[in-house]
Amino acid sequence: MPKLMIVTGSVRPARVGGAVADWVGGVAAADDRFDVDAVDLRELALPFMDEPAHPRKREYTKPHTIRWSERVDAADAFVFVTPEYNYSYSPALKNALDFLMHEWVHKPVGIVSYGGLSGGTRGVVALRPVLQALGLVSTGANVEIPYVARQIADGVFTANDRQQAVLPMLLDELARLHGALAPLRSGA
Length: 188
Fold this sequence. Notes:
8 strands; globular
């Protein structure tokens, strides 16, 4: 069973991303096609890029980087749950991505974005070139959640009909891409 890492990209104290990531994780776990690994970047608490060597060398010296590398290496696919900050995505997500290089290559990724009017779309546009540079393969289906706070009550996110329809499509695509990309990762 492929391991799906769901990454909560916001680390702000008063954030809504945790509720959205909980919804994504619940749907993915109920799907029964994935072993879900939930990563909250706030709990992961990576410092700001403190490795002496470039990640392409994979000569990690810090225990937090070694643990992050092992965890990402073990994942077969990803869903990034990310807010839009100033027409971009979260700096914590950028930092987590930049810590590593080879661990991301030839793995599928889907995005669940949230924000105000655009639902995080502008952040996704900024994120895509970074994902491509790291060798990640993006799904075509993405969940975009405009005015996300309106869908959260008592810390629980409630998806609307469109979001409930699109997330399974994203998971379907991740499963298909995993199957297609796995031989590239194994060297076959």
